[in-house]
Amino acid sequence: MLEYLKKDLTVRTEWQVKEVNFSDIDSIAVKNQNGEVIQATRVIVAVPLTVMQDRDIKFIPALPEEKNTAARALQMDPALKILLKFSKKFWPSNHGLVVCSDSFVSQYWTYEADSAAPPVICGFCTGDQARNVGSMSHDVIVDSFLKQLDAIYASQQNGVAPATSNYQEYYIYDWGKHPFIRGGYSAGKVGANVLHRQLLGQNVASYLFFCGEATSSFAPGTVHGAMESAALAVDELIAFKRQKKTLLAKKRSKMDKLQAPAPTAKM
Ligand SMILES: Cc1cc2nc3c(=O)[nH]c(=O)nc-3n(C[C@H](O)[C@H](O)[C@H](O)COP(=O)(O)OP(=O)(O)OC[C@H]3O[C@@H](n4cnc5c(N)ncnc54)[C@H](O)[C@@H]3O)c2cc1C
Predict the structure, then answer these.
(1) Per-block average pLDDT, block size 10, for the chain (267 residues)?
(2) Is the bond leading into 61 cis (omega within 30 degrees of zero)?
(3) What sign does the CA torsion over 248, 249, 252, 254 have?
(4) Pair (87, 134) in one structural domain
């Protein structure tokens, strides 16, 4: 999908935006961590909520305070996944998704082995649980999760620890520790409402547009919400550009009429 989306674009990676200077709206300056600058006539900001909250990007002039207030009304907790690979499947086929809220890992889902893929269980933690599990060493995380699975499935395997005895390898990814994301997805704090998301996504001066899952009132916290918010930002940008073009065209034709030589009267 990424290959398709970027086919007509110049994509720069390792390019952390540090400053967006829109003092001159005809030439907005976007600066990166190395001081390199790109000039633009319009900018769409699509960073995660945490990046807005922690003000990683300096906006010149400063963004309206209501946008910062809106960002603070939401929160983005860590989220992590623990994938365990086994030599054989030891769980029943109807255990697609298991929720066990008082366990070490409160939910996991299973992947059936087929000819191409090995049997895998994926544990998922968010919020305080992700914060707690994320502070432990990988050895402790894997050992604790295996013990949890052993306790759940041992009776079906004649008392043998089925997870530990079939365990092969693990992969853990903690989005709370990703330096440019720092969390899973946004959620409203107590008192937050849809207006906060709308304010976060509101354009500034019709030249600076905002999107990302946290700005979506339709489906926050999801990929489709993020995509929908990006489509909205692009539509808005085009509408403002057209509006400006129409206004300019009207102004120009008015000026042309004013400057046009008076028609010579026919005798
Ligand atoms: C473990 C997990 C499971 C999930 N499961 C689902 C699911 O099943 N279904 C679903 O719909 N959603 C799911 N989500 C949520 C979904 O992944 C997010 O809502 C979505 O990816 C957010 O998209 P986004 O474009 O808003 O932000 P991101 O995808 O986070 O994109 C923001 C980008 O901005 C970049 N960035 C940050 N700072 C800067 C800067 N200063 N300069 C330049 N770039 C910067 C970041 O590197 C990042 O690439 C899950 C999320 C997690 C963590």
Answers:
(1) 87 96 94 98 97 98 96 97 95 92 95 78 96 98 97 80 96 97 97 96 94 96 96 94 80 70 54
(2) yes
(3) negative
(4) yes
Phi, psi of 102 (to 5 degrees): -95, 15
Task: Check pocket membership of 219 for ligand 1, CB cut-off 6 A.
Answer: no
Report pTM.
0.89
Does residue 78's CB lie within 6 angstroms of at least one atom of ligand 1? no
Q: Which neighbouring-strand residues pair with 59?
A: 20
d(CA 148, CA 92): 16
**Residue-range definition of the domain harbouring residue 52:** 15-75+186-247
Q: For strand 107-111 and strand 120-126, is the pairing parallel, antiparallel, or unpaired?
A: antiparallel
Q: Rounded CA gap, 49 and 237, in Å?
A: 21
Q: Measure the CA–CA gap between 41 and 26, rounded to whole angstroms.
A: 6
Total residues belonging to the chain: 267
For residue 16, the ligand 1 atom closest to its alpha carbon is 42
Claim to verify: residue 55 and residue 82 sit in the same structural domain: no
Q: How far is the CA of 21 from the centre of ligand 1 (A)?
A: 25
> Rounded to the nearest 5 degrees, what angle is found at the Cα of 266, between the Cα atoms of 265 and 267?
115
In a domain? residue 112: yes
Ligand 1 atom nearest to CA at 183: 53
